[in-house]
Amino acid sequence: MAAGDLVLTGLMAVLLVGVIALLTRIENWRSYTPLAGGGTATGEDAVVLNREKPAGLIRWLTTVDHKDIGLLYGLYGIIAFAVGGIMAVLIRVQLITPGGAILGANAYNSILTSHGITMLFLFGTPIIAAFANYFIPLLIGADDMAFPRINAIAFWLLPPAALLIWAGFFLAPVTQNMIEPAQTAWTMYTPLSVEQANPGVDLMLLGLHLSGVAATMGAINFIVTVFTERGEDVTWANLDIFSWTIAAQSGLILFSFPLLGSALVMLLLDRNLGTTFFAVEGGGPLLWQHLFWFFGHPEVYILVLPPMGLVSLILPKFSGRKLFGFKFVVYSTLAIGVLSFGVWAHHMFSTGMDPRLRASFMAVSIAISIPSAVKTFNWITTMWNGRLRLATPMLFCIGFVSNFIIGGVTGVFLAAIPVDLVLHDTYYVVGHFHYIVMGALGFGFFAGVYYWFPVFTGRMYQRTLGKAHFWLSILGTNLTFFAMLALGYLGMPRRYATYQFDGAIAPLAQVSTFHLLATAGAFILLVGQLIFVWNLLQSWLEGPKVEDGDPWNLERDGMLDKEWTWFDRKLETAVTDGGEDAEQSTLTDGGEPKSDD
Asked: Which residues does the annotated region (Disordered) include (predicted)?
């Protein structure tokens, strides 16, 4: 182990111990925290519990309010989304020409690695935690999360995790390229990730480990909150679908992220202490793939189950009907959670594993499509003969369903061994995966932002900009990732910085054409997200104020959930306490008065 790595590891250990020691000495952990279960405080606790929140930056650095922490998660996730999106645009610009347009091979590999890790670990999981932190207590009638301090700690572990993951980009110029960004790809396959002599890889692994600890702490908190903090009128039978999916997702995190953490520690030991967990003479390079994908495929459902819950919650509101087959949606959620741990080796069909094992994994991989199809039919049936209102949240829900169908069907092909052996490690896999991650996770996230925007801000967004964001996003998503599916059928390998194959795989002009289409789609997506950020910021600051606690006119169909009841009480309290009367009338999808249309 190099002396520099020893010093770095030692400093990290000292820093973490210092943070833990500091947290244990902070004032009474119940400060600013309501008593669980709605009890009343007495004596000294009553004074502490009734204090006002501090103002300014101190509030955000010390808060344990679940709503504030939800907003912090949201800001963090949007920043990570922007960083990962810029990396994606750089990747697509590089592939405009067969020889590479702007990046060298090392720079391309660095950006490719960081893009995947950023989107999955720094955007995907935290942005879900943003919605869950803000709304789970409101939806289930709880005062706060079960462990407010742990909730805050889980968030504040994420910024240093991001800095460690991105550290190579900042340190490379300072250290004369002695520390560079990791170039292992996001899957970190051995032996490449062991033999790459670059301290930036160690920093990235430590950052991943830190993000995993944060996710695990959050998952425990969500499980305990949903199980023990529900209001007296909230039973398992009438628990909302979003809370069901968060509980299922948290269970997946609890069983998968610790395994990833253990694998990362073994990888760090192989890199720095000469152990042989993943060496040929030890556990073997394939051991990493088994450990990683046992986490990696549940991770796909960790990312997509909560957006499924968001769509299952929001889509009925704009269909004028209750969610069709609610119990079956819940059962399919639990089935996906269980089956997701039995499909990991379909990522390894081409490794030469025993054909009998391959067949069993193929069967389970195809079987997991059944509960996913159940959800899809339930969403479509909910809309069937419904009174559809095509507000921006509803448009993103419909976009989610269409993208999820394409992503799911292409996944069934990859689950079939003969097809996978042909398409493995081609752009077909990239297209399939991004239809799920961007086409499903991204669209579910946008639907949730627009639907709950009045609750977050007390204002309404601009309707025209919201719908422009949707149409640019749906066009860009399908143009980019459908072109990638075509590239996969042409045999274009993934992760290549150039594609000068001279016709060995497919006619070069044909490959170039689909790369151009994918790049054009990426720029359309970029424009859509710029509109989203502008709409978010401008409407938050200057959007028309919402006066009514039912801005979507949900009470008409008997679908007003607890968070809107809470929001209505908040508005009434603001007026009672002398808040300013809003000058605008109650608005719905960005500027039109509420109506039955």
From this structure: 575-597
